[in-house]
Amino acid sequence: MTQSEELRNKLLQARDARWQLIAELDEGDGCLVMISSNMPGEQKHRADGIVAWAEAELKKRIQAKTLKTIQDAAGRAVFMKTPLKPAEAKKAGVGLEELYPFCRLLDIDIYRSGKAFGRAEAGMSKRQCLICAENAADCIRTGRHTYEESVSAAEKLIRELDPSF
Q1: Of 4, 34, 71, 152, which sits 20 to 30 A from 27 (CA to CA)?
Q2: pTM for this structure?
Q3: What distance lies between CA 3 and its chain's CA centroid?
Q4: Secondary structure in 3-state letters for the chain
């Protein structure tokens, strides 16, 4: 097994474990918020500070309470609960994802009754690519940018946030 296959397997295992947590934590009133990063490459932990910052911001902005924080192959993930309706929580999350350039490395997902509540359900436009202004999902699906270009763009955002990186 190559290193990239090993990483891919670890990321798939992390995603499965996160879905298990979502199923466990998504109960009661309000909705579940999961903050993670969309940091490309193997150094997922490089965006952990941004995830922690977003957690503090959502506590203030949407009265979210932290339920659990994990660290896995995909980096840090914070699971929170907010009393807001899913559309309101998604709009607040997207607002944070678009607030500063480094926020492009955030992924703030909303869940209610075991279902993801996306931008489309909130009447919002699709996420833009980290590199160009096109739809991010289209760029990923078509392989429009190389792995190296994606990692480089993310690293640039982190260095602009903190030059010591």
Answers
A1: 71
A2: 0.91
A3: 24
A4: CCHHHHHHHHHHHHHHHHHHHHHHHCCCCCEEEEEEECCCCCCHHHHHHHHHHHHHHHHHHHCCEEEEEEEECCEEEEEEEECCCHHHHHHHHHHHHCCCHHHHHEEEEEEECCEEECCCCCCCCCCECCCCCCEHHHHHHHCCCCHHHHHHHHHHHHHHHCCCC
Domains and CATH numbers, the chain: 3-125 (3.30.70)
What is the per-residue pLDDT for 120?
Answer: 85
Residue identified by tokens 């480094």 is 102
Q: How far apart are CA 107 and CA 151, in angstroms?
A: 16
How many Å apart are CA 97 and CA 106, to the nearest integer?
6
Query: Which pLDDT belongs to residue 162?
Result: 75
